[in-house]
Design a protein that fits this description.
The structure holds two protein chains of two kinds. By secondary structure, chain A is α/β, with parallel strands linked by helices. Chain A has a single domain, classed as Glutaconate Coenzyme A-transferase (3-Layer(aba) Sandwich), CATH 3.40.1080.10. In chain A, 30% of the residues lie in helices and 26% in strands. Chain A is built from eight helices and 15 strands. In chain A, strands 1, 2, 3, 4, 7, 11, 12, 13, 14 and 15 form a ten-stranded mixed beta sheet that branches. Chain A has a three-stranded antiparallel beta sheet with strand order 8-10-9, covered by helices on one side. A two-stranded antiparallel sheet of chain A has the order 5-6. In chain A, a hairpin with a 6-residue loop joins strand 9 (138-141) and strand 10. In chain A, helix 5 (104-116) packs across helix 6. Chain A is globular and about 55 Å long. Chain B is of the alpha/beta class. Chain B has a single domain, classed as Glutaconate Coenzyme A-transferase, CATH 3.40.1080.10. Chain B has eight helices and 14 strands. In chain B, the strands form three sheets. In chain B, strands 4-3-2-1-5-10-11-12-13-14 form a ten-stranded mixed beta sheet, sandwiched between helices. Chain B has a two-stranded antiparallel sheet with strand order 6-7. Chain B has a two-stranded antiparallel ribbon with strand order 8-9. In chain B, helix 1 crosses helix 2 and helix 2 crosses helix 8. The longest helix of chain B has 13 residues, at 30-42. The chains are: A alpha/beta, B alpha/beta. At the A-B interface, helix 4, helix 5 and helix 7 of A face helix 3, helix 4, strand 9 and helix 5 of B.
Chain lengths: 270, 248
């Protein structure tokens, strides 16, 4: 059964320096509060895994918490570049970051393989692209039809961190709306932490709801508003204005650092 | 109504490509605006599919991200990312995919990964996202891009997404199921693959644009189809709906 604890305790308990950490949430339910707690606790040398690095990983990379990034799309959706992500790759600031990149289909299937306890996933993809020579993907032949496919290696993060709308007091979690790859990330990982908007006496089934039983999760922590500036459908709204503002905040190293000091390290609200 | 601007014409022309489509796969920005416009005025039954897993979304506003709450609230179905790629895109269930790119070459291959060398890029771009598999498997791909030498280049710095590869037969050799790119819609006109060579050829010019202008702003020696079509100017209904949509 998942421990229902504070976010501070859960991060201290589950995330170690050097870990491969997957924080998932596809536009929706991005675990910002947990990511910020990682920074406050000074976690270093992380391998950060995430399909869409977006603003949260821009912050972690810009603060120098990552030694390696595994991803498939590093942009601020609808706005433009992730300036800290670019600065790290283009200029090694504040430190050089090793990268491993895939397509979305590749990353999604890597999580599925991890969640399934399989060493790899089979798919159609990558062929003909320059990505093929730059990442971990291998051609394979279907033993039944002879069709040429590719295999991508399973993702097995040390820790998965996701955000959801609700948990009950036993740590059973329910999320709804865009489900992304959160279920796969939790099931693929060695350890897992779920932050939730609220803890309720009983989970009410929702249309399209994804339920993660408490016994596959290590810790659940209440973090109201914990996905802002992303959102938790039905509870908070995506702060599109902030995503636009991030472009100017993050463009300059000093304004970025000052913003992070004030809003994340000092723990002030966004 | 004031005359249409180049960007508005580009959006309307992109929307018109969806007149007969059942479903369209869309990213953010102009393609999203075009697809929502198509649903408003040309094809009310059009199914909008966003990478975030929202199938049949009916947004009232143009969403900033591909996963805005309104898409989830109005969708016919919401699926996980693995399901989106494995069950919906891979088997070729989507008719048209709208894609953008930083660079497009004459065979409509796309770069959205790096400008410069991969290990020491001058500009690190976002990366592949869903594009490689979307372009391989959706029945048809339409690229929406600015008409400039920076975008329409002789040689890609990185092949992120295969369009028509190195020409006829390339997609078949790679085992792709979809037919590949059918058009690049720019702010000057429309480029379509030549039926024999598959090289992108200027087939249509927007009002007030000259062939020379299009040639000058293309990074390869742009062939021009004969006859060359002229874009029918946006109707009041199209333009009115577009302006109302972006003002919401």
């Amino acid at each position: 059964m998942a421990d229902v604890s504070s976010l501070e305790e859960a991060v201290a308990e589950l995330v170690r320096d050097g870990d491969a950490v997957a924080m998932e949430g596809f536009t929706h339910l991005i675990p910002f509060a947990a990511g910020h707690e990682l920074l406050r606790q000074g976690r270093r040398d992380l391998e950060l895994i995430r399909m869409t690095p977006d603003v949260l990983y821009d912050q972690l990379v810009g603060m120098g918490a990552a030694r390696r990034l595994v991803f498939s799309y590093g942009g601020n959706p609808g706005v433009g570049s992730l300036h800290r992500f670019r600065d790290a790759i283009e200029h090694g600031w504040p430190r050089a970051v090793e990268i491993e990149e895939h397509s979305h289909a590749g990353m999604a299937n890597r999580y599925v393989a991890g969640a399934s306890g399989l060493p790899c996933a089979l798919m159609r993809g990558y062929v003909g692209t320059d990505l093929m020579a730059r990442t971990r993907v291998e051609p394979v032949v279907c033993p039944f039809t002879g069709e040429r496919l590719v295999a991508v290696p399973a993702l097995r993060p040390d820790v998965a961190i996701v955000h959801a709308q609700e948990a009950d007091r036993h740590g059973n979690v329910q999320l709804w709306g865009i489900p992304g790859v959160q279920k796969e990330a939790v099931l693929a990982a060695e350890r897992s932490l779920v932050t939730v908007e609220r803890i309720v006496d009983e989970l009410t089934p929702r249309p399209g709801g994804v339920v993660l039983p408490g016994w596959v999760i290590d810790a659940v922590a209440e973090a109201p508003g914990g996905s802002r500036p992303s959102y938790s459908l039905g509870i908070t709204e995506r702060d599109n204005a902030f995503y636009r503002e991030w472009d100017a905040i993050s463009r300059d190293r000093h304004s970025f650092s000052a913003w992070m000091d004030e809003h994340v390290l000092a723990g002030a609200a966004l | 109504m004031t005359a249409a601007e180049a960007g508005e014409i580009q959006t309307v022309v992109a929307a018109r490509r969806l007149r007969a489509a059942r479903s369209v796969f869309i990213g953010v920005g102009r393609p999203s605006t075009a697809a929502i416009l198509a649903r408003m005025v040309l094809n009310p039954e059009l199914v909008l599919v966003y990478e975030s897993g929202t199938i049949g979304a009916k947004p009232f506003r143009v969403p900033l991200s591909i996963g805005d709450g309104e898409l989830a609230e109005t969708a016919d179905a919401i699926v996980s990312v693995p399901e989106m790629f494995n069950y919906w895109i891979g088997p070729g269930r989507i008719d048209v995919a709208f894609l953008g790119a930083a660079q497009v070459d004459r065979f409509c291959n796309l770069n959205s990964t790096v400008i410069g060398a991969y290990d020491s890029p001058s500009t690190r771009l976002p990366g592949a996202g869903g594009a490689p598999e979307i372009a391989a498997s959706c029945r048809e791909v339409v690229v929406v891009a600015p008409h400039s030498r920076r975008t329409l280049v002789e040689r890609l710095d990185f092949v992120t997404t295969v369009g028509h590869g190195d020409g006829p037969g390339a997609r078949e050799r790679l085992g792709f199921r979809g037919q590949g790119p059918s058009a690049v819609i720019t702010d000057l006109g429309v480029l379509e693959p030549d039926p024999q060579t598959l090289e992108l050829t200027l087939t249509q010019l927007h009002p007030g644009v000259t062939q020379d202008e299009a040639r000058e702003r293309t990074g390869w020696a742009l062939a021009v189809a004969s006859p060359l079509r002229s874009t029918e100017p946006p109707t009041d209904a199209e333009l009115g709906a577009l302006r109302e949509l972006v003002s919401r």
